[in-house]
Amino acid sequence: MSDNHTEVEHLACDVLVIGAGGAGLRAAVEARLAGKTVIVISKSLFGKAHTVMAEGGAAAAMGNVNANDNWQVHFRDTMRGGKFLNNYRMAELHAQEAPDRIWELETYGALFDRTADGKISQRNFGGHEYPRLAHVGDRTGLELIRTLQQKLVSLQQDDEEAGEPAEKLQVIDETTITELFVENGAVKGAFGYRRGTGRFMAIAAPAIVLATGGIGRSFKVTSNSWEYTGDGHALALRAGASLINMEFIQFHPTGMVWPPSVRGILVTESVRGDGGVLKNSDGERFMFNYIPEVFKAQYADNPDEADRWYTDPDTNRRPPELLPRDEVARAINSEVKAGRGTEHGGVYLDIASRRSAEYITERLPSMYHQFKELADVDITAEPMEVGPTCHYIMGGIEVDAETAASSVTGLYAAGEVSGGMHGSNRLGGNSLSDLLVFGKRAGEFAAEHATATEPPKLSDDEIAAAQADALRPFANDGENPYELQAALQAINGRLVGIIRKAGELEEALTELEALRPRIENVTAVGGRAYNPGWHLALDLRNMYVCSVATAKAALERDESRGGHTREDAPGMDPEWRRINLVATLDGGELALARQDVPSMTPELLGLFDTSELAKYMTPEEYRSTEAEDA
Amino acid sequence: MSTRTFRVWRGDAEGGDFAEFDVAVNEGEVVLDVVHRIQAEQAPDLAVRWNCKAGKCGSCSAEVNGMPRLMCMTRMNLFAEGEPVTITPLRTFPVVRDLVTDVSFNYEKARQMPAFAPPADLKPGEYRMQQVDVERSQEFRKCIECFLCQNTCHVVRDHEENKPPFSGPRLFIRAAELDMHPLDARDDRREAAQDEQGLGYCNITKCCTEVCPEHIKITDNAIIPMKERVAGDRYDPLVWLGRKIFRKDKKPA
Amino acid sequence: MTTTEDSAVSSPPRAAVKARNLRIDNWRRGPILTVLGITAWVAYATFRVFYQGDYWVADYHYLTPFYSPCVSVACVPESAHFGRFLPDHPLIPYAALSLPFLLAFRLTCYYYRKAYYRSFWLSPPACAVPDGHAKYTGETRFPLIMQNFHRYFFYAAAIISVINTWDAVLAMHSPDGFGLGLGNLVLWANVVLLWCYTLGCHSCRHVMGGRLKHFSKHPVRYRFWTVSSALNARHMMWAWITLASLALTDFYVMAVAAGWITDLRFIG
Fold first, then answer.
1. Residue numbers in A near B128 (CB within 8 A)
2. What is the per-residue pLDDT across A305-336, written as a single tens digit (0 to 9) for each?
3. Which of A123, A217, A272, A441 is flagged as catalytic?
4. Residue-wise pLDDT tens digits, A557-600
5. What is the three-class DSSP state of A8?
6. B83 contacts C17? CB cut-off 8 A
7. What is the ipTM of this complex?
8. Which of these, A61, A208, A591, C99, has the minimum number of CB atoms within 10 Å of its CB?
9. Residue C7 domain-assigned?
10. Do B121 and B234 belong together in one domain?
11. Which DSSP state fits A164?
12. Closest residue on chain B to A373 (Cα)
C-alpha cells in the first residue's frame, strides 16, 4: 500500500488512550476537555468496540422510577453483588457519580427511553434493589458507544472551528498496541501496528490510559468479541503494574447454546427483568431451589409472590431469576449436570408463555431479532435455550480508586481492564456506569499527570527491540495461531471454567506450562498487511499470561465467592474476604501475593445491618459498627 | 455436516482474483463461521474484518453471492445444497486486502455532520422528553454503522464522482435523527441535508432499506421525511401562501 | 460502473472484481413485472381516456373515474356535476381538468418513482446491480428536481378523491330514486382504495404530523400521522391495487354503459 510502510511512524501526545470502548472514549473526552493533546488507539474500527454488546443498561441511582433509590442503596447492592470483596471506595464513587455521568450523555445527544414524566426510564435488573438501569430498548451499549463516538467527533469539530490542529484529538483505528515503553518506573509511550498496512507506530506520551476490556477470547464459549484478548492486562503486567482478583470471571447465566455457531452469544438479563423465567426440561421453574441464605430476605420463595413483584415491587420480594449472575449461572450449571438440561445442554428461558408477543418485540427488539435471525427461533412463541457463557472479568489492573492510576507512574486504567470495583462479581448494568465514572476519572487524572510531566523521548533501541518482538512470528517455525488459541481455550474451558477444583487447576497450570513454548514459537505466514494470523499470534501471549494469572489465583483461593466457585471448597470464608490476590510479573514468571482488601469506613459499614455483615465478615470487622450503633 | 465450495475474492489494490476453498459446513452455521474455518485451516492470512459475530457491531460487511450482507447474519441454509458461495469485499470502497475495505469515506462524511447541539437553557439532568417524541430518532440510532447502505447506494457505488457531494443513507438518517430530536438546538438540519449532504441525489430506489440488517426504514422514515421537510420549506404551496399572508417564518412546533 | 474496466475514476482502487454483478437470484423479475404492469395500464388508460364514450350509465348514474369530473361540453349533461366548459376535441379528454393532476400525483409519488427509476430507467435495475447510466445527478436538477412538487399534486389528488367520493354518493341511484347495484359496490370499493393510497402518501404523512418535532404536544395530529403511517407502510401495495381497481371500475362502467353486461341490482 503506502510507499514507506516499513518505516516506523512516530507520533506524540499528552494522553494516549489505548482502547476505544466506553471507558477509553470517555477518558479521551475528559483529557481533551482538559486541554490535552489526545490519541485514541482503537483495535477495531471506531465505534465497534465490545461496549456495543452491552444490552441491559447503565446502572445509576437517579430515582426516576422509584424515588427511594439513592447512591447508598446502589452502593449497598454493588457490595452485596461483589460479596464485599469490592474496593469500597470505587463502589462508593461509582454509586455517587453514575447519575451525573448518565445525564451528561444526554447533553452529548443520547436518547434513552423515557418515563411518563419525560425523565430517563430505568429498568429492573439482577441484584439491583430498585429499577435503576437507564436503557434504550436492549441496545444500551450501542447508544453509549455511538454517543461518545459522536461527542469525540464534535470535539474535533470544535477544534477545527477554533483553529486547532487535527492532531489535538485523533482516533487511530484498526491499530493494536504490542508494548508499553517504561523508564524508571514511569510509562513514556507505546508501540503498535496498523492492521491495514502492518506499519509500525511508536507513540511518545507521558500519560497512558489503558481501556482495553477483558479476556473472554481465552474461553471457547464466550460472549466477547475477538478483541478481548487481555491486551491491557498483559501490557500492564509487562510494564510492571499489578493485577488483582484475576480468579473472578463472570459467566453470564444466559448465553445462547444452539446452534453451535452462536454458542455463547448473550441473551440479555432484561429478558428475566421483563418477566422471563428459567425452566428445566421437566418444566420446573427451578430457581426457587437455589436462593442462598444471604439473599433469602430479598427474593421470593414462591411463584405467586415472584409474579406479583413485576407490578408491585414494594410489597413483594423479587423473583429468584433476578439473583446475581453468579448464583443463576451456578444454578443452571447444576440443573444441566443433574440431567435436567435441554437437548443442547442448556435450560429453557421462557418469556413466550408469560408475556404478549407485542410486549416482547417492543421491550426486547434486538433479542427477538437475534434469535429469529441467528437461531430461527421466535421468542414470542417458544422458549429460548440458554446456558452460561464467559462474559466479564472482575479482575484487572490494580488502580487507585480516586485517580484510576496503576502502580506504574503515568499508567491509568478504566473499565473492564481495571480491577477492584466489582469485587468478586459484577452486577448487570454496573459495567456501563463503571466505564463512564472511571473513564472520566482516568482521563482527568491522566491529563493532570501529563501537565506536570515533561514530554518523554523514545530511544531507537527500544523501538527496534519492540519491532523485532512483533515480527518474531514470521521467523518462527512453529504452529498455526488458530490451533494454539483453540488449545488454550480448551484448557480454560475444561479446567478453569465455572466450577473449579484444586486438582484440575493444577492440571491446567501444567498444561499451560506445556503450551508456553508452543505459543512462543507461534508462526505467522503471509505479509504484514491485514494479516489476521499474525495479529492472533501477537495476541496469544496476552491471552496466555492472563490465563496463567487466573489459574494461579483460582488455585490459591480455596473458597467459593462470586465468579470463583471451588467444588472442593464450597462457601465463602470470611478470612478470604479480607484478601486480594495480586499478580505481578517477576522476571517473566507470574508471581502471586496476598494483600488486604481496603476496609470500609464506619459510615459505609453503617449502611448494612449487622446481621448481613455477619454473613460475610469476621466478627472483629463488623463489630466496630455495632459499637457505634449503640 | 457437508462440504461446500466457497469462492472468496483475494487480493489488494494491485489486483486479485477468486480463490476456491472446499470447506466443511455444520448445521446452523453462518457464512462468517465458514470463513473462520477457512482461515483456521487453509488460509491463516485471509483478511476479514469482524468483531462481535452477533449482528451488533456491523464489522463483517461483505457481498455474498452479489448481495451486500453481514457475514455473521447470513445463515448457510439460505443457500441451496451444492450452490457455490461467492464472497467479495464491499464494492463501493477501496480494497485494503481480501474481504477488508477502507471505509473511511463514511467516517469523513460523519466528521462533516454538525453534532447534536444541546439546548442552552437546560443543565444535565434537566432534559425532559416524551417517549413518542424520541422514538423516531431512536429508530435511526439503532444503526450499527455496517455501511451496507452506503455500499449499496448506486449514487456512489456506480458513480465514484458523486462521493464528494453525497453523504449517503447512513448520514441521512443521522440528519433525520437530529432534525427530529426533541431538544436539538439547531434549525438548519434540513438545509444542510439538501445543500451539503446531497439529499437530492437520492432517487429513493430503496436499496439502502433493503440491505439494512437492523431493518431501519431508511427511505420511508428518514430520507423521504427529510425530502418532505425540505419540500415543506421550499415547495409547499400552502406553506408559501401562509407565509405570504401571515408574514411569518414559522418553524414546526 | 467504475469499479472494474474503468478503474481510473476510482482512486484509490476498489477490488478488481471482474463480474459487474454477482447476484444469482432472479433480480430481473421485479423490473420486468413493473414494466409490463405499468405499460399495460398506461395503454388501457390512454385508450379509454380518448375513447370519449361509454363512461356514463344513465339509469344508475355510474360515472367512471376516468371521466370525473366530466367538464367537456360534450359530456352527457347529467354526468357533469361540476359544469361543462372544456371544448369538445378528440385530443381533450372529458376529465382534462383532473387527469393531469392524477397523472402527476402518481408520477411524482415516492413509490412510483422507485418503480420506474428501477425498471424503465435502470438506475439501478436492482440492488448491487450496476446503474444503466454513466452519469447520475439524481433529483438535484431540472427536470427531476420537479419531483419536489409532489405536495402540490397530493393536495389536488385529495380534492379529486373527494369528487370521486361524491360521484359514488350520487351513483346510489335508480330510475325510481335510491338504488344499489353491483356497480355501486365497485365504485365504493375503488373510492375506499383510492383513499388508502392517497392518505398513505408520504406527503400526506408529512402534512398530517410528520413535520412536527413534538408529537406529544399535538395528540390529534399524532393520531392522524399514526394512521397515515400505517397506510404508508403498504404504499406500494395500495399503488398497485388502485391501478387495478381504477381500470376494473372503468371497465365495469364501460361494460354496463355499452350494454355488454347488465348491472346486478339489489335495490331499484
1. 117-119
2. 999 999 998 899 999 999 988 889 999 999 99
3. A272
4. 999 999 999 999 999 999 999 999 999 999 999 999 999 999 99
5. coil
6. no
7. 0.94
8. A591
9. no
10. yes
11. -
12. B73
